[in-house]
Amino acid sequence: MIGLTEHKAEKICVYKGERYSVRDNGAVLRYPLEGKRPIQTDKSCTFGKLNTNKGYLEIASVRIHRIVATAFHGEPPTKEHVVDHIDTNKQNNRPENLRWVTRLENILLNPITARRIELVCGSVEEFLANPSKFRDKFQEPNYEWMCTVSIQEAQASKTRLLAWAESDKPLKGGTLGDWIYNRSLPKEKNENKPEIINSLTPNAVQKAQNWRTPSEFPCCPQEKYDNPLTTYSKNLNVGNIFSRNQFTSSLIERVAISKDEKTLWIMCKSGDENPIKPYSLAEVTYKDDVFVHNSLGTFFQKDGAEKQFTIVQGLEWTGGETFDDLC
User: Are residues 96 and 115 in the same domain?
Assistant: First the structure.
């Protein structure tokens, strides 16, 4: 792990009216405002505090990556520009891992939304070639703004994406979609991946294949009971946090337990702002004195999650086809 003092360059910048000293290891020091008493985060260098809901490092609720990008890459070209973490690690705030991107580029660099575009348009390239062809295809609220993308903006974004692809993982005859997916794959050298990993909550583990990020389960019982899953289900009140980690949090929507009381299902809604896939479904079992958590998928729309929630219980779904069935 890089230490606070391990850096080669340091710059002074002003971000949102506040003055910072910024190091090329991603650490910042905030100076107290003139005429005001220093607060706890002033006059000390820090990598920031983790926002467990968003997965970003912050100082006094200000995101570190935007401060670092401003110091080393200048002001954002427009107010709509956001910072892209090139290696997809939200906590790697070294300047070489950050770049300003447009909202369109940010969407395209996300494998989930890129997949959505491919389903609607055939490929990322097809959309960028002529966005106007697909103006009536993006009718969901989260995607409506894409109807207004101009061909000039699309072509400029395509040029930058291709350049980034060549400098990162050359396409070699593939598509931008291929590069986007490969870009987001974890760079793991160990082929012997564990089937089960520990969670951040004692007495709880996760199935690594579907739930790789260690998470916290606030409602998980910490004492032994005659019927552990029944006890767990009584803790799962609608609206409470079921799980959370450095990237996201999930709020309980619906809960069900199997007739033999050996399996628990929890349908959740994301606690994040404007998530791409707001709904999720989890399964919990109890084995070897620990609660085993498994993800059964994430969903674009509520009825997609409700359908799977119904089916896993062995019940009949009468709601017909959902949008998620097509994805």
Answer: no
Burial class from Cβ neighbours inside 10 Å (0-12, 13-18, 19+) for residue 317 reads middle
* Residue finishing a domain among 128, 157, 183: 183
- 324: region left, alpha or beta (phi > 0 left; psi from -120 to 50 alpha): alpha
pLDDT digits (tens, 9 = 90+) for 281-310: 999 999 988 999 999 999 999 999 999 999
Q: Position of tokens 């062995």? A: 314
Copy the structure tokens of residue 131.
């966005």
Contacts of 174 (CB under 8 A, 6+ apart): none
DSSP 269-303: EE-SSS-SS-EEEEEEEEETTEEEEEEEEEESSHH
Average pLDDT of the residues of the chain: 85
Rounded to whole angstroms, how far apart are CA atoms 252 and 286? 20
The predicted structure's pLDDT at residue 190: 46
What letter would DSSP give residue 309? H
String of b and e for 169-199 (b: at least 16 CB within 10 Å)?
eeeeeebbbbbbeebeeeeeeeeeeeebeeb
Contact criterion met (CB below 8 Å) for 28 and 68: yes
Please give the pLDDT value at position 290. Answer: 92
Q: Which of 123, 157, 183 is the last residue of a domain?
A: 183
Global pTM reads 0.54
Rounded to whole angstroms, the Cα distance separating 300 from 39 reads: 42
